[in-house]
Each structure stands twice: as structure tokens, then as C-alpha cells.
Q: What sequence folds into this?
């Protein structure tokens, strides 16, 4: 798979995720997920954070958190 195909697939998957999440109620967003202690909202925020963070910012935050 070349770079263009990879990004095309990523865009399709992101759009599909947005479609799946669009209809959630507030209660569903706040519901417990399969990740202990995390709501659905927490998991989605974690999954999508990388779409906005830069590489230097990622490493700064990783180091400043004590690699946690």
C-alpha cells in the first residue's frame, strides 16, 4: 500500500468513526468504556488526539509526564 492509499484509508476510517459517533446521546458519551476508568468520551479523545498533535509536542508531553 502506498502513502496515498494509506491516507485515503485513514480518511475513510475517520469518516466512518465520525458517522458512528454522531448519534450518541450525552449519556452514551459518558458511559463506561471497556477501558477501566475511562468513559466513551475519554477513549475517543485519546484515539483522536494524535490527529492534532505534532511530533515535538508529543515527545514533550511524554517526557514531561514521566513517560506515563
A:
Amino acid at each position: 500500500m502506498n502513502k496515498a492509499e494509506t491516507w485515503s484509508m485513514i480518511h475513510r476510517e475517520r469518516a466512518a468513526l465520525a458517522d458512528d459517533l454522531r448519534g450518541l446521546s450525552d449519556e452514551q458519551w459518558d458511559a463506561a468504556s471497556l477501558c477501566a476508568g475511562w468513559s466513551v468520551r475519554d477513549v475517543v479523545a485519546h484515539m483522536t488526539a494524535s490527529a492534532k498533535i505534532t511530533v515535538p509536542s508529543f515527545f514533550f508531553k511524554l517526557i514531561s509526564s514521566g513517560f506515563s
Observations:
- The helical segments are 3-22, 26-30, 40-49, 55-64.
